[in-house]
Design brief:
Blueprint (H helix, E strand, L loop, with lengths): L3 H14 L5 E5 L3 H13 L3 E5 L2 H11 L3 E5 L7 H9 L9 E5 L4 H9 L4 E4 L4 H55 L5 E4 L2 E8 L7 E7 L4 E9 L3 H14 L2 H7 L5 H11 L9 E9 L4 E7 L4 E4 L5 E3 L18 E4 L5 E5 L1 H4 L11 H10 L5 H16 L8 E8 L11
Parallel strand pairs: 1-2, 1-3, 3-4, 4-5
Antiparallel strand pairs: 6-7, 7-16, 8-9, 9-10, 10-11, 11-14, 12-13, 12-15, 15-16
Length: about 425
Amino acid sequence: MAEPAQRIEQQLLTDAAAKPTPLILLVDDDEITRMGMAGRLKRLGYRVIEAGDGTAGLAAIRVQRPDLVILDWMMPGMDGPSVCEAIRTDPELKSSQVVLMTAHDRPEQIAEGLSRGADDFLSKAASRQEVLARVQASLRSSALVREIERTRDDLDRSHRLLSAKQHELESELQSAADFVRAQLPLPGIPAPGLTMQWAYQPSLALGGDLFHVCPWGSDALGLYILDASGHGVAAALRAVALMSFLREDNLEKTVGSFDPGAIISEANRRFPLTKDGEYFTLWVGRIDLSSHTLSYATAGHSGAFLHADRNESHWLSMPSLPLGFDPDSIFASTAIAVHPRDRLYLLSDGIYEAPSPAGELWGRPRLQATLDAHHSYSLGQSIAETMAAARQWLGGDVFPDDVALLGLEVLDGSTFGKARS
C-alpha cells in the first residue's frame, strides 16, 4: 500500500493533469535551490520559468503573466518583499498570486512579508508534501482570481454592449418620437378667424394620445383627439395608423363625407379591438367656416370642453363606447353654434387624471375651473398656466399618462374663411 505522502503526491499529480497547465515563475538567486524546485514542479506537470533576481523576476511577471510567483526573500538588489510591493502598486499586476520563500519563518518576518504584499509563506525547510500542497492551494487561489477577473471583464464588455444598444434604442425612439410629433398641427392660424395653441407631454418617449387640426373640404376645419390604450411604441404606432385614416383625402374615399358621426362609425368598423384588448377612444369635430357651426361626435372620449364668451362652459361629450367594442354601432353628430371669443379645448384624460402625491386625482371640475379662470388670458398663456396647475397638483413634471391640451379660439371681430392647407 502506498504511503500517505505518496498518495497525496499522486492525487496532486492527478488534479494538476486534469486542468490547463499553470505557469509558475521561480525567482531565486540561488541557482541550486531554484533548479531543485523547478525540477520538482515540472515533474508535477507545471510549466516553469526562472529568474535570478528581483528585477528580472518583475520583468518576467510583466511579460509572462504567470499563474503563480514563488519569490525568495533574500536576494541582491530588489529582495522578495520589495518585488511584492512593486506588484501590488502596479494596476496590471496587483492581482498576481505571490508566495514568499525564506529560510527564516519567524512570526515577525511572516507578518512583514504579508503586510508588504505576499499571499502566502513557504519555509525552505518545508517538506516536499507541504511545498506541493501550498503550491496547489496558491494555484487554486490564482485560478479563482483569474476567473473573477474574466467575469469582471465579461461584465464590462456586456455593460459596454448594453450601453451601446441602449444608446441606439434611445436614438431610434427619439427619431420615432420626432416623427410622431411632426404629425401634430402647427400652432398659429389654422383658418382665418381662428387661432390655435397646444401643449403635449407623452408619459414615455412615444405617446398614444394624439390630435390634429386640418382642412376637411374647402370651407371646413376638421379637428380630433384620439387616445390609444396602452403606452409606448405599440400605442404610438396604432395612433399614427388612425391618424392616417383621418386624413382628408382618405376620408373622401372611405367615408364620402366629413360628418363626424359618419367618420367615427367608419373608424369603428375599421379599428376593432386587438387580440390583446387594445382599443381607441376618439373625439371628432368639424367647424363649418361659412355657418360658424361646430358639429361633433365621440367614441368613448370625453376630452372636449367649450368655454363660450358668455361665461358659459360645458363639456362636449355624450355616453358612447370606444372604437371596436360593437362593430355595428352607429355614431351620431351633434351641432352647436360658435361665436367670437369662444374657446374650444381638446384634451387627453392624462391631464385631469393627474394624481396628487396623496393619490387624489385632479379631476375634471378642477380642470374646468382652471380653464374658466384663465379665459381672460391669451390662449397660449391659458394653456401654459393650466399645464402648470396640473404639474403643481401632481407635485412633479412626469405625468403617469400622456397629456395633451389643445386650444382653438374664435377671434374677436373676425369672420371665418378658407382653412389653411
